[in-house]
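[User] Once you have settled down, look closely at the record that follows, and write a paragraph about the fold.
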Amino acid sequence: MTASANNVTVPGDTRLNDLKVSRKAPFWTKIPIIKELRVAVGWQKGMLITGLSLTAFFLLVALFAPVIAPYGYAQLKDANGVSFPAQSAPSSEHIWGTTAGGYDVFSRVIWGSRTAVIAIVIAVLLSIFAGVLLGLVSGYFGGWVDRVLVMIADAIYSFPSLLLAILMAIMISGGQSGLWSGILASGISITVVYIPQYFRTIRSEVIRIKESAYVDSARVVGASTWRIMTKHLLKNSTRTLPVILTLNSSEAILTLAGLGFLGFGIEPTAAAEWGYDLNRSVSDVTAGIWWTAVFPGIAIVLIVLGITLVGESLNDLADPRLRARKSAGEVVGSIEDTSVDPTQKPGVRNEVVAELEAAKNPMGASDQPVTVTDRDPSFTASEWGSKEEE
C-alpha cells in the first residue's frame, strides 16, 4: 500500500482517483429561468425554450430599435427630403411597405416593440409593488382593513379589464398624450386592472402562512411586525408571482393594443404603437392593402405567444403533480422493468434480472428468461426445488 498526504491507496487501484464527488452547483444554476430549464423535460421544455426565444427576440429588437429601424417612427421623408409614397407595396426601399399616412411599416413595427416593452415593465412593476404590499397588510392584520381592501379589490376585479383601462386612460391623459406621458398613462391604466390579482394571491398565502410555527416563534423572540412581514411572510408567499407576472405581461400587451386600437393610446407622432397602426389599417384591408395590418398583427401575436408559453411552462413546473407527470417515464423506467407478471420478459435496462438470468444460464443456453418473481425470497424451499427440477 502507498500512502499520501490525503489518502491511502493500493498500487494500481485508481478507483479513488476516479471517484467523482458532487460539487456545489454554480450560482447561475439557481437563476429562476435557468433552474426551470434544467428541470423541464419533453414538450414542456420545448414550450419554455420557444417562449424564451420569442421573448428574448423582441427584447433585443426593442433594445436595438434605433440600429435596426431604417427610419424613425414618425419619419415621412428620406435623407434627400423626398416624401415617402402613401400605401406603397413592399419594395427595396420599404421592405414592408408604407401606411396611408406615409409611415414606413417596418420601422413602425420595430419602434412599436420598444413602446410595448416599456409599457409592460411599468405596468407589471407598479402592479407587483402595489398588489404585494396591500396583500401583505390585508392578510397579516385582518379585521376591518382586510374587509375594506377585499371589497375594493373585488369591485375593481368585477369590471371588464379593457373598459377599466379606457376609463383610467381618459382620467389620466384625456385619451391622447405624448411618449412618456402616454406610456405612463397606459401603464397606470393596466396597473389598476392587475393589482387585484397580485393582492388576492399574496393575501391568501399570507393568511395561510401567518399561523405557522416559525412565524409564532419569530413573534416570541420579539421580531418586529415589519421583519415578520418582509422576512418570513413575503419570502414564502411569492412563489407563484413569476407565473402571474408572465401571464399578466401578455395580457398587458393586448390591453395596450386595445387602447391604441380604440384611439385612447399614444399619439402616432409621439411613439409607434401597434394597436394604433391596426386601427389605421382597417380601411386598407378592404381595399386589398394587406401589409399595413399583417405585420403589426403578427408582432402582437408572436410576443403574446412567447410570453404566454413562458408563463404556462412556469405554471406547470411550479406544480409538483404536473412536473412529476412529465418526467415519470424517465424516472420510473419502462413498465416491463417493474412488472410482477412471471411471463413478462424483462427489459434491457433491468440489471437485477440480467444478473439473475446470467447466474441461471452461465453458458447462454436457456429456455425462458428469468424474472424477479422467479427468485422471490417469499417462496418456500420446496417451491424453488420444484421449479429447478422442472
